[in-house]
Design brief:
Distance between the termini: 37 Å
Order of helices and strands: HEHHEHH
Structural class: mainly alpha
Number of strands: 2
Strand order of the largest sheet: 1-2
Helix content: 40-55%
Radius of gyration: 13 Å
Number of helices: 5
Length: 108
DNA sequence: CGTATGACGAGCC
DNA sequence: AGGCTCGCCATAC
């Protein structure tokens, strides 16, 4: 089984409010992994189909949907986000200034 | 226990 | 601006 780290990551992802997105690095920091952004990606990849975790709200630091082995998931993620009101730019990027989730105690 | 891998990130060319 | 390389670190083999 995957380590508890995954559970911590999923917990962090669940905190992301609807209509907002968080970066892998951000989730990693919240989950206590620090710079384990890659591990977050791993955890997402390990998610089963039909999971309750809002994995689609996790994007990379550029506000784009990360490239994965199976290209299908990318489209699914975009559709889910748009359904929540997240707007994509013509280049397929999300405006993090607008949809980027900012957990309490964090400032910019 | 050592090596390889990867849904990332920041830096350099 | 766009593309390539190196670094971080947990998981898998």
């Amino acid at each position: 089984m995957a380590a508890d780290s995954y559970q911590a990551i999923y917990r962090a992802v669940r905190r992301i409010p609807r209509g907002k997105v968080a970066t892998y690095g951000q989730v990693a920091a919240i989950a206590g992994l620090g710079r384990g952004a890659r591990q977050v990606g791993y955890a997402m990849h390990a998610l089963p189909t039909g999971t309750a975790v809002p994995w689609h709200r996790v994007v990379n630091a550029r506000g784009e949907i990360s490239r994965r082995a199976s290209g299908e998931g990318e489209l699914d993620q975009r559709l889910r986000l748009e359904a929540e009101g997240v707007r994509f730019s013509w280049r397929g990027r999300i405006d993090l200034r607008r949809h980027g989730w900012q957990p309490a105690r964090s400032r910019r």
